[in-house]
Design goal:
The complex is a heterodimer.
Chain A: H1 2-16, H2 21-35, E1 59-82, E2 89-93, E3 112-123, H3 129-142, H4 153-166, H5 176-196, H6 199-202, E4 220-224, E5 236-244, H7 247-254, H8 258-263, H9 265-268, H10 272-278, E6 287-295, H11 309-336, H12 341-351, E7 357-359, E8 362-364, E9 369-372, H13 379-390, E10 394-398, H14 401-406, E11 412-414, E12 419-421, E13 432-436, H15 447-462, E14 464-468, E15 473-477, E16 481-485, E17 496-499, H16 509-519, H17 522-537, H18 544-560, H19 567-583, H20 591-615
Helix pairs in contact in A: 1-2, 4-5, 11-12, 11-17, 13-16, 19-20
Chain B: H1 31-37, H2 60-63, H3 83-91, E1 96-97, E2 102-103, H4 113-126, H5 146-157, E3 161-165, H6 166-172, H7 174-182, H8 184-202, E4 213-217, E5 222-223, E6 236-260, E7 266-270, E8 291-293, E9 299-309, E10 323-329, E11 341-352, E12 365-377, H9 397-408, H10 412-419, H11 428-439, E13 444-446, E14 452-454, E15 460-464, H12 470-480, E16 484-488, H13 494-497, E17 499-503, E18 510-514, H14 516-519, E19 524-528, H15 535-547, E20 549-554, E21 557-562, E22 566-571, H16 584-588, H17 592-595, E23 600-604, H18 610-625, H19 628-634, H20 638-651, E24 655-656, H21 658-676, H22 685-701, E25 706-707, H23 709-726, H24 738-742, H25 746-765, E26 771-773, H26 774-784, H27 791-803, E27 807-810, E28 813-816
Parallel strand pairs in B: 3-4, 5-6, 10-12, 15-22, 15-23, 16-19, 19-22, 24-25
Antiparallel strand pairs in B: 1-2, 6-7, 6-8, 6-9, 6-11, 9-10, 11-12, 13-14, 17-18, 20-21, 26-28, 27-28
Helix pairs in contact in B: 4-8, 6-7, 7-8, 10-11, 11-22, 21-22, 21-23, 22-23, 25-27
The chains are: A alpha/beta, B alpha/beta.
Chain lengths: 619, 817
């Protein structure tokens, strides 16, 4: 809240002095404030608080994925207004605002045109319910004003303001108070009206363009002023900015008379579709003027998000526990995978895999797992629910013939509406994509089905998605953990196939899994969650000595039987060795680690071979 | 146009016949100034369209009607300022005496109309560009003033448009160029005047539809759409991009015609900032609100909205393409279609959002667009000619310098080849082959002697065991070249590769959609899983890979498209593992007609020896754990490689020198000789052509304009290497080219004949036996022959004899004829 006042006062500074330095100062100030411990948690989050409980023009944050980038726009950075009664000219600042004050002198020589860009941002797709809940709870703890009781609302704001008053503030001007109160009053009167245009039922006819079906949450048009080149599509960001829900924005869009549209050539160039996509009502898609954005390495609320000393302390303290947590998690996963320890080991490795770099076209570190031989009847569904409980972002794609033929996986540019229509493969980094091939039945794939399968294949082999721009395709690299569950060997490529060998056959699968799940305490589960997110971020290296050993080993293996080990096998074993070491919290490969990796890969291979000879005709 | 008084009207009609209407091109000058200071002969006078040809053709500046230029923005006006009183004080500009009136600069600029005109006329009369190689100048004498010749062309053809290359203006007069870029709205009309004066002076009798309009293009800095910023507003810019959408024609009112309902007095009102102010009072009879708009007598101009998207090559990775709105006016309407890649020269505009009278606040955003002055399609000639110049990438001098330094290094060839796909281990020769493919040979045109174009592109086939990173190599190449296409043989149909005709849902027009091969014209088409391709699909490749064209006869469209693409294909052996006992053809089961069209065929096998394994292991481990910096030290940056290739492809056209030709001849003769000893042909002219291409490509790698012996040596070596791998007859161990050209090695053919002869002899020796048992004959032959004879061979021999009409085979009996 305090920051919001500052913002209000920074802009008038431009009136006396059009020196752009103040802009840099504003940013610095906000960045400085947000770096302060805990301060970022004072800022209410659009993810957690319904829009109509937030004050317009206040500072909010938003945890989101950049879904689309619109064209840059020019706006009046500085403009002059003429007071109709006094004829006095006043210079005003247009930055961080959507609309101007009244009486703009369009011919003024003092007008400064500046450039900004709009990003269409959506909440991180597939964010697990637990991640949402935890971040909501932690936010609610510090921002009492986000209480959901409308009658208490005003009161709580005042409390909040009072809280702020008690804190030492240098920048605060004495007469900010009326402004603040005025606004909160206005907000009170506005709230009901925005409630009547209820967000939930309204969004049904307005396509908010979420990548995954059934997603909810606010989408946001983020106006970006600085560092445009540093942002990329599909980045996950935590954006701090000024909320703008000026109803004018909506009115401008809706009041347009179709006959006027015909006449005005400058506006007829926008099709109604385009207008809907680019200027949706502000009550549904608020505008956010970005002050500062923090790229998110992960969206696990249990981990400190910023790479600060804080985090390194956290990491080192957790590293000690790492091995024990791993053992517990492994036991848990073994139970879940019906007593198959090897499959559990591989699943664990898969969950911490991460594309850490690319060598020309080759993504390194990806580890797509194909769990074959999964029992039918909702086992996979249950398995997904358990995975979902562990990772912050996930999505289960049931590969039934119908979904494969009808679903849009690859984002496609819609030139009529001039936006990128999202698809299920537009996911944030490190999202777990759970492909359920057990749902696939015999039948005919149509052309879009074939395209979808190809897209999945490309995703797995190259970790990239070719977005469809109709006249050409554009390649977007991604970093998605793909887990394929199937009966036989999957029709999709994978880095590693593990046939599941259940040791137990519970008569009632649902009950069995539910009991396993219930047996875990939340604190235990939380530990697992931290473990998985953390193991992924660890650095890793390999010494020359071990390199030599690995080389020798490879040569030896080839000597006995050149067919048995190929370059591809070495690739995979190196990845397994890396993940195995990381899973134990070791940041270098030891000789032991390599032997272990070799060992479990051997076990796995003998199992697949066994499977092959059982089935006989499998290639 | 949003004013309530304006209404759209269907067509444009002629108005009263006034030879030259008083209309001023400079909107910023006041009417009063114009009337008092400018007489009719002043160059500042600028007519409006008078009636369309009213019987008598006219000529001369005065007689030819002037076409309005909405592209220069009559729709947007600055406040009108009386130049006479305000300027000298406000802008400190000098107003001195001039022949026709005063020497003034245009308000807000430093442009003096007289000087500017003079300069431009001088430019037109004197500019010579002897080194020009633009296609527009084809057929012009390069040592004569270029633009005077163009004016002459105008007088002959009668198309009143003069395209002026801005880089010419810049090299001639930098100051004039600066003015043109900064104040196009003021300078271009001045240019128009200058041209017209000059033209009608020279060709007083020519008749044009309207006065000549100057269309500057190539405003030197050809910008990326992304780099446009607020400073470019109202300046002339050139950007490149791709058309994604065009609107229907929009009639835009230029001048409204009002008539008083009471006294029939008429008046005209010009559009001011997109609005027309309806006169409230009739000037003649003083009746208020009596004026009505007469649509039929108002003037309209054509306008079209075009959306342009930045071309994929200009985009930074990981961002979405930007789009820009472009307005085309008058005859530029409908000049471009969605999908065209164009360079646009125009004026960048920003218009504030319309103020809503009912609201006190406005959105603080401007709408931006470009008013087009000149379109230039970059892929225009792709369908019927070479487009060397359109592809030209601009290199900075430093870049060229670094590239040349790199080229001067003695080991540049090795360096580049190792920079190619560093993640793939060794396979040096394959990488070298692909490198040469990226550079390509020199294009030769023999169409005058009737042989058509010679293929300059090198085609390569990789075959070998699965899992030997063939796909990865293909992916890499596809990412490296600007016009690459990647398809998989499994998924692509003949249609997807060539072109298909579809109906545009909007226009109901039949549109030719091009497939991967045509799209990769001048690039590389990577085809994975070549062996999985259906026969019909493969058959289209025959034409592409030798003639470099694609013929299409579909839905009434018959055409031949250029597909000058190199093909890089990867094929897996039919049995999942490569069988070293079989020939290439037998292993991959591809028709030999297609195989012979590949210049180089490489085998990517998994070599099984210890030293190799060790190096491979080292390479892979390093790949996983080397840091970025280490990698960069070791290898060339991909961007450098890209630029190097692009530079060599555009600027280097090596030709064979004497020694090299001699060396090639020798090499060819040698190749033929090898086989002649064993009674078989071991080389065909196609191999000679391949050698030439490879040698040329190698010269390109060295940035050399001459193909020298070293190039030929390397070409020979590589060619031999590839042949050794792919055309070795597994039965004899000799390299046998006929495996690739006829699908069967010469020894195999010989052997077949021998068996047939032996069989015949055997039958003959038996005397008169009209019918024999099949099985018995086979057993006999096997018993007689010292070499093992398989059933296949026996059957083949039978078939050969049947062809000779010596015997027939019916079921299990063989009858003599």
């Amino acid at each position: 809240m305090r920051m919001w006042f500052v913002c209000r006062f920074c802009c008038p500074a431009a009136q006396s002095n059009s020196n752009p330095e103040w802009e840099a100062k504003v940013l610095e100030y906000f960045k400085g404030q947000l770096r302060e411990k805990e301060s970022h948690s004072w800022v209410p989050s659009l993810n957690d608080v319904p829009l109509h409980y937030l004050k317009p023009n206040s500072l909010v944050k938003f945890r989101c994925l950049v879904q689309d980038m619109f064209d840059p726009e020019f706006y009046m950075g500085v403009y002059e207004t003429v007071d109709p009664s006094t004829k006095a000219n006043v210079l005003r600042c247009g930055k961080y605002k959507d609309v101007t004050e009244c009486g703009v002198d369009l011919n003024s020589r003092n007008t400064v045109t500046a450039e900004r860009q709009t990003f269409y941002c959506v909440p991180i797709p597939g964010e697990s319910p637990w991640a949402k809940e935890i971040s909501f709870l932690s936010a609610a703890r510090v921002v009492p004003s986000t209480s959901y009781v409308p009658s208490r609302q005003k009161r709580s704001y005042e409390e909040d303001d009072d809280d702020m008053d008690t804190q030492p503030q240098k920048q605060r001007e004495p007469h900010t108070e009326p402004h603040g109160n005025g606004d909160s009053k206005r907000q009170e009167t506005e709230a009901p009206s925005s409630q009547t245009t209820a967000p939930s039922d309204c969004s049904s006819h307005l396509d908010l363009n979420f990548p995954l079906p059934g997603e909810r949450g606010p989408a946001c048009l983020v106006k970006v002023y600085e560092g445009l080149d540093s942002f990329k599509l599909n980045d996950t960001l935590e954006i701090y900015g000024i909320l703008s829900v000026n109803p004018v924005l909506t009115v401008l869009g809706e009041e347009k008379d179709p006959s006027l549209l015909l006449l005005n050539p400058t506006e007829s160039m926008e099709t109604p579709e385009e207008q809907r996509a680019h200027d949706p009502p502000a009550s549904l898609v608020p505008r956010l003027h970005m002050l500062y954005a923090r790229p998110l390495q992960h969206n696990n609320p249990l981990l400190p998000s910023a790479p600060t000393e804080d985090q390194s302390a956290f990491v080192s303290s957790f590293l000690v526990e790492m091995a024990s947590v791993r053992a517990e998690l492994l036991a848990y996963l073994t139970h879940v995978l019906l007593g198959d320890g090897l499959a559990a080991e591989y699943l664990l490795l898969h969950l911490i895999s991460n594309v850490y770099t690319r060598r020309d076209v080759l993504p390194l570190g990806k580890f797509t797992l194909n769990l074959s031989g999964c029992p039918l009847n909702s086992y996979t569904e249950r398995l997904y629910q358990i995975v979902q409980q562990l990772v912050p972002c996930s999505y289960r794609l049931s590969m039934s013939l119908h979904t494969m033929n009808s679903m849009r996986l690859v984002p496609k540019k819609d030139y009529v509406a001039n936006r990128l229509v999202s698809g299920a493969l537009q996911l944030a980094r490190n999202t777990s994509l759970f492909l359920d091939e057990t749902q696939l039945e015999q039948g005919q794939l149509d052309s879009s089905g074939v395209r979808n399968i190809t897209a999945l294949g490309n995703l797995i082999s190259w970790q990239k998605v070719d977005y469809d721009f109709s006249y050409h395709q554009m390649e977007f690299p991604c970093n998605i953990n793909v887990l394929v569950t199937s009966e036989g060997r999957s029709l999709l490529p994978s880095d590693c196939q593990v046939p599941l060998q259940p040791q137990v056959t519970p008569p009632n699968m649902e009950e069995y899994l539910t009991t396993i799940h219930m047996a875990q305490f939340t604190s235990q589960i939380n530990k697992f969650r931290v473990y998985l997110s953390l193991a992924r971020t660890l650095d890793y290296s390999i010494s020359d000595e071990v390199t030599k050993a690995v080389e020798d080993d490879f040569v030896d293996m080839r000597k006995d039987d050149p067919q048995s080990v190929t370059a591809e096998d070495l690739h995979r074993m190196l990845v397994v060795a890396r993940l195995l070491s990381l899973s134990l919290g070791q940041t270098t490969l030891s000789r032991d680690g390599w032997m272990r990796a070799k060992h479990i890969d051997m076990l796995r291979r003998s199992r697949t071979e066994q499977q092959k000879s059982l089935n006989g005709n499998e290639p | 146009m949003s004013s309530p008084t304006s209404t759209p009207v269907g067509s444009k009609r002629s108005r009263d016949d006034i030879p030259v209407t008083r209309k001023f091109y400079r909107n910023r000058l006041s009417e009063s100034y114009l009337q008092s200071y400018v007489d009719m002969s002043s160059p500042l006078m600028y007519g409006t369209p008078s009636s369309r040809v009213e019987g008598t053709p006219r000529s001369g500046v005065r007689g030819t009607p002037v076409r309005q230029r909405p592209d220069l923005g009559s729709a947007r006006k600055a406040p009108q300022v009386d130049l006479h009183t305000e300027l000298p004080s406000a802008d400190g500009a000098v107003a001195s005496e001039q022949a026709a009136g005063q020497k003034l600069v245009i308000w807000g600029t430093d442009v003096n109309v007289g000087t500017c005109k003079e300069k431009f006329q001088r430019f037109l009369q004197r500019f010579i560009d002897p080194t020009s190689n633009e296609d527009e100048n084809a057929g012009l004498d390069l040592n004569e003033p270029l633009y005077m010749q163009k004016l002459e062309e105008i007088s002959v053809i009668g198309e009143p448009v003069l395209n002026v290359n801005c880089s010419h203006v810049q090299s001639f007069d930098a100051d004039l160029y600066r003015q043109l870029i900064s104040y196009p709205q003021e300078v271009i009309p001045t240019f128009d005047m200058a041209v017209n004066e000059l033209f009608f002076e020279r060709f007083p009798d020519s008749i044009l539809e309207h006065q000549i309009q100057v269309r500057p293009y190539n405003a030197l800095k050809t910008r990326n759409m992304r780099s446009l910023n607020p400073e470019d507003i109202d300046q002339m810019i050139t950007i490149s991009g791709m058309v994604i959408r065009t609107s229907q024609l929009i009639p835009e009112m230029q001048e409204a015609f009002f008539q008083c309902q009471v006294c029939a007095f008429s008046t005209r009102v010009e559009v001011d900032r997109g609005r027309i102010a309806e006169p409230a009072v009739c000037r003649n009879c003083n009746t208020t609100h009596s004026l009505a708009l007469i649509h039929n007598r108002s003037a309209f101009s054509d306008k079209q909205m075009i959306k342009v998207q930045e071309s994929p090559d200009d985009m930074p990775a990981g961002q979405t393409p930007h789009t820009t709105i472009v307005y085309a006016h008058n005859d530029l309407v409908d000049k471009v279609q969605p999908g065209d890649r164009i360079n646009i020269t125009g004026i960048y505009r920003a218009v504030p959002m319309r103020e809503n009278p009912r609201q006190s606040t406005v959105k603080s955003v401007y709408k931006t667009h470009i008013d087009v002055i000149h379109f230039r399609k970059t892929d225009e000639k792709r369908l019927h000619g070479l487009d060397e110049d359109s592809d030209q990438k601009l290199f900075t001098e430093e870049r060229v310098q670094t590239l040349k330094e790199l080229a001067a290094k003695p080991d540049v060839y090795e360096r580049l080849s190792s920079a190619l796909a560093p993640s793939i281990y060794e396979q040096e020769d394959i990488k070298k082959g692909i490198l040469l493919q990226l550079f390509g040979g020199t294009r030769k045109d023999f169409s005058q002697t009737g042989r058509g174009n010679f293929r300059a592109e090198v085609n390569i086939l990789l075959c070998g065991d699965p899992g030997t990173s063939k796909s990865q190599l293909l992916q890499y190449v596809f990412n490296l070249v600007p016009r690459g296409q990647y398809t998989s043989g499994k998924g692509s149909s003949a249609v997807g590769l060539t072109a298909y005709v579809m109906k545009d849902p909007e226009t109901k027009q039949l549109v030719l959609q091009t497939g991967a091969l045509v799209l990769s014209d001048n690039g590389i088409c990577c085809i994975d899983e070549f062996d999985k391709m259906s026969d019909s699909t493969r058959s289209v490749l025959h034409e592409v890979m030798e003639q470099q064209t694609l013929s299409i006869a579909k839905a009434g469209i018959i055409c031949q498209l250029n597909a000058r693409t190199s093909v890089l294909a990867a094929a897996n052996p039919v049995e999942s593992q490569w069988n070293p006992k079989k020939t290439t053809i037998e292993n991959i089961q591809l028709p030999h007609t297609l195989l012979s069209r590949f210049d180089l065929i490489f085998l990517m096998l998994d070599p099984q020896d210890e030293a190799y394994d060790r190096r491979l292991a080292h390479h892979l481990v390093a790949l996983y754990y080397q840091s970025e910096e280490q990698i960069e030290e070791e290898f060339l940056d991909m961007a450098v490689l890209k630029d190097y290739i692009a530079y060599a492809r555009t600027y280097i056209n090596p030709r064979l020198n004497e020694e090299a030709s001699q060396a090639l001849i020798e090499a060819y003769v040698d190749m033929r000789k090898i086989g002649s000893g064993r009674g078989m042909v071991s080389a065909y002219p196609r191999q000679l052509e391949s050698l030439i291409r490879l040698a040329e490509a190698h010269a390109k790698v060295r940035f050399s304009d001459k193909v020298e012996t070293v190039d030929v040596e390397e070409a020979k070596r590589l060619h031999r290497e590839a042949l050794k791998q792919s055309a070795t007859d597994p039965r004899t161990g000799f390299v046998d080219i006929s495996i690739l050209t006829t699908g069967m090695s010469a020894t195999a053919r010989k052997r077949k004949e021998e068996v047939a002869q032996a069989l015949k002899k055997m039958i003959q020796s038996r005397g008169k036996t009209p019918a024999m048992k099949y099985q018995q004959l086979f057993d006999d032959l096997r018993g007689q022959s010292e070499a093992a004879i398989t059933k296949d061979m026996f059957e083949e021999a039978l078939r050969a004899l049947a062809d000779e009409d010596y015997l027939t085979v019916t079921g299990k009996t063989v009858r003599l004829l």
